Amino acid sequence: MSNTEKVRVDKYLWSIRVFKTRSQAADACDGGKVKLNGSSVKAAKPVNIGDKFEVRSEARKWVIEVTGLISNRVAYPEAIKYYIDNTPDEDKLAPAFVPSVFQTGKRQSKIGRPTKKDRRSIEGFMEGDEEE
């Protein structure tokens, strides 16, 4: 890619795989989650080599320095050549993945309604008390 070509912030962040979709990148820019030198940027702002961005995505926080311009999404090993990740180590640790009970369809142990088996054992226990 030639240096005279301009790349939008949202397209750049999408192409280096900070965001999964370009619309997510644009929404993050509009929502003030992308900052250039401490001030929020709009999605259409052109990216220059040497720019330092602070990006807050759903997964984690990024502090990146632009080393090359790219406008098409490429594989991760290629994408990492276009930026330097200066993110502090504590921000690199994404919050631990907690599966939602609604997504997995499985109930976490000892939380929520009892299963049919649990209910039967409770009823059996309660009936045992009544007989005494």
UniProtKB/TrEMBL annotation:
The RNA-binding S4 domain, residue ranges: 7-68
CDD domains reported in the protein's UniProt record: S4
GO biological process assignments: cellular response to heat
MF term (GO), any: ribosomal large subunit binding
RNA-binding recorded as keyword: yes
Gene3D superfamilies xref list: RNA-binding S4 domain
SMART domains referenced in this protein's UniProt entry, alphabetically: S4
Transmembrane intervals: none
Composition-biased stretches (Basic residues): 107-119
Keywords from the UniProt entry: DNA-binding, RNA-binding, Stress response
Any one Pfam family match given in the protein's UniProt record, by short name: S4
SUPFAM superfamilies: Alpha-L RNA-binding motif
Keyword Transcription (UniProt): no
Stretch list, region Disordered: 105-132
Family of this protein: Belongs to the HSP15 family.
Listed name of the protein: Heat shock protein Hsp15
Organism: Chitinophaga arvensicola
